[in-house]
Amino acid sequence: MVIPPLPVVTKKMTRKALDKREKQFQRFLQAIARSEELKSSLFLQSFLNIIDLKEWQKAIKVFEKTKFGKSLHDLVTQDGDAAVTLIQNSSVFATKMQSFADSY
Predict the structure, then answer these.
(1) According to the 3-state scheme, what is the secondary structure of the chain?
(2) pTM, to two decimals
(3) For a 10 Å CB count at each end of the chain, is N or C smaller?
């Protein structure tokens, strides 16, 4: 499974930069929506639907206690690395992702 990168945060948020970042977030969510595993995730659905911060914090605790679920800390090392499986098109995707994101 390939999770697309989030848009890069820039220090100067001009109207043009905000519009570009909005388009990048839209592309990010569209890429997630194409993944059966990600779009069916209860965690993602909660993230997109819960508005209240306290309710979201409760949901996080529930997901972390889920029998087969893993917290983000289990998936990502302190260096920010995550275990991945290389598939045939992974390297092509990774090398072209920044230019693809910049084109929007």
Answers:
(1) CCCCCCCCCCCCCCHHHHHHHHHHHHHHHHHHHCCHHHHCCHHHHHHHHCCCHHHHHHHHHHHHHCCCCCCHHHHECCCCCECCCCCCCHHHHHHHHHHHHHCC
(2) 0.47
(3) N
